[in-house]
Amino acid sequence: MEDLAKNLMEELECETVFTIPVFGGIDISESVVVTWIIMAVLILAAILLTRNMKIDHISRRQAVAELIVTKLTGMVEGMIGPEGKTYVPYLTTVLLYIGVSNIIGLFGFKSPTKDLTVTIALAVMSIVLVEAAGIYHLGVKKWLHKFVEPVAIVTPINILEVFTRPLSLCMRLFGNVLGAFVIMELIKMVVPFGVPAVFSMYFDIFDGLLQAYVFVFLTSLYINEAIE
Amino acid sequence: MNTLIAIGAGIAVLGALGAGIGIGIATGKAAEAIARQPEAEGKINKTLILGCALAEATAIYGFVIALMVIVMLK
């Protein structure tokens, strides 16, 4: 039991891998390095899949690339609606990043989403995008007027929502990934082999992808609400 | 002190109760909906999974708080 507690503490703390010696030293933590790895993998996959594309007589590789792009963008477009088409590429990128980083734990890396700072950054990006989209589509006046809708008395709640939305977004993602990890550790302690693989299918793969989907769905819901 | 921390963490996890009830109701209603309109199964399933993920959030909050209670107070 002591081992587990120590192990958990170790996983909760994100240690610094190295320090860039400028401006008095910038700490590069493990999650940033794993994010770089994910970026490299995604960029490499994108380059490999999209090399010498043709209009007709497409190769099998191009068919796979087209399938991925149409399926993902179609899914996100279905969530955000036709008015929010501008935001589909960003949301798809977030979906890919969170999805890959949730299941990268299977390959022995530490998921970046298990680090609270990463999920906070993602949530802040989302809420900035939501508010910016509101201002861009409606103009400052109408955007401000949205705070007093439907009645003036709910204004404090509307303002509070700007802060609770990113909080719930980041806590949901972080808690789910961390919770799945803790439960997996407990199962591994009870049954060392065989059984964890079955549970890992649910906790690591299904739940990880579901959380990526939920994050993007909620962001698109908020955007949709902000621009109408 | 350790006992109190353990009790506090246990109380925080009680939030899972709400998630359990919520997911139970959602699944029951989804089963009813599919029985009534089997052709809409795909759409219902999608909504159900999403609703479950959202309802689960309360349980996750409880879990995060319990973990924080243990880690911070120790």
Notes on the structure:
The complex is a heterodimer of chains A (228) and B (74). Chain A is 73% helix and 4% strand. Chain A is mostly helical and 228 residues long. Chain A has one domain. Chain A has a two-stranded antiparallel ribbon with strand order 1-2. In chain A, strand 1 and strand 2 form a beta hairpin. The mean pLDDT of chain A is 84. Chain B has 74 residues and is an all-alpha fold. Chain B has a single domain, classed as F1F0 ATP synthase subunit C (F1FO ATP Synthase), CATH 1.20.20. Chain B is built from three helices and no strands. In chain B, helix 2 packs antiparallel against helix 3. Chain B is elongated and about 55 Å long. The model of chain B has no long low-confidence stretch (mean pLDDT 86). The chains are: A mainly alpha (228), B mainly alpha (74).
Judging from the principal axes of the Cα atoms, what is the shape of chain B?
A: elongated
- What's the pLDDT, averaged over the residues of chain B? 86
The end-to-end distance of chain A, rounded to whole angstroms, is: 53 Å
> Over all CA atoms, what is the radius of gyration of chain B?
17 Å
Total DSSP E strands of chain A: 2
CATH architectural group of chain B: Up-down Bundle
